Amino acid sequence: MLQAKCSTFKLEAGCDEAGRGCLAGPVVAAAVILPVDFEHPLLNDSKQVSKMNRELLRAYIEEKALYWAVGFCSEQEIDEINILNASILAMHNAVDKLSIIPDFLAIDGNRFKPYKNIPHTTQIKGDARFLNIAAASILAKTHRDKWMEKLDLEFPQYGWKNNAGYPTLGHRDAIRQYGITPYHRKTFRLLPEQLSLF
């Protein structure tokens, strides 16, 4: 049973990101503030929820949340500042887009940089323990998947519609055959045998 939130603050925003381990595309984060009576039997860490149910949850969360927002950090920014800093920046970007200033931030994981003067806590596996972080994980994942489906129209040979940029065998085979795109993260180890792509 997931707990509603981490703190006693009224406007606590749960934050999570998607796409840290991908070879291509942005890292995407969401910030979500839920009403006190929010519940949904399917809501869990996005990795534990089927794609179909994630889409159902996305619509439900976006309708029922008090406030929600999504932030992106591009593959170029990831290469410039590294994936950890980019993940944190994407969360900052999401909180920035909320139409109110939260009282408190509940962050999935164990690393974060303070955002303005808002108190925060980090929660390991928070997306499997707290409703607001789980909701953020669903929005981050579904918005990122939609983004990768758009990029798939431009570069269909990499299978991003299905693999969302993760390092599947098919994705890596396509990199071997076709090389890299502007959307690939050039500081990542794109192939196991990689020495240099340049």
Description:
The protein is of the alpha/beta class and about 200 residues long. The protein has a domain of about 130 residues: Ribonuclease H-like superfamily/Ribonuclease H (Nucleotidyltransferase, domain 5, 2-Layer Sandwich), CATH 3.30.420. Helix content is about 35%, strand content about 15%. The protein contains six helices and five strands; from the N terminus they run ββαβααββααα. The chain has a five-stranded mixed β-sheet with strand order 3-2-1-4-5. Helix 1 crosses helix 4 and helix 2 packs across helix 3. It starts with 11 loop residues before the first strand and ends in a 20-residue tail after the last helix.
Structural class: alpha/beta
Instruction: Could you tell me the CATH topology label of the domain at 12-143.
Output: Nucleotidyltransferase, domain 5
CATH homologous superfamily of the domain at 12-143? Ribonuclease H-like superfamily/Ribonuclease H
SSE arrangement, N to C: EEHEHHEEHHH
Please state how the strands of the largest beta sheet are arranged side by side: 3-2-1-4-5
CATH class of the domain at 12-143: Alpha Beta
CATH architectural group of the domain at 12-143: 2-Layer Sandwich
Strand and helix map with partners:
Blueprint: E1 12-18, E2 27-33, H1 51-64, E3 67-73, H2 75-81, H3 83-97, E4 104-108, E5 120-123, H4 131-154, H5 160-163, H6 169-178
Parallel strand pairs: 1-4, 4-5
Antiparallel strand pairs: 1-2, 2-3
Helix pairs in contact: 1-4, 2-3
Short description:
This protein has helices spanning 51-64, 75-81, 83-97, 131-154, 160-163, 169-178, and strands spanning 12-18, 27-33, 67-73, 104-108, 120-123.
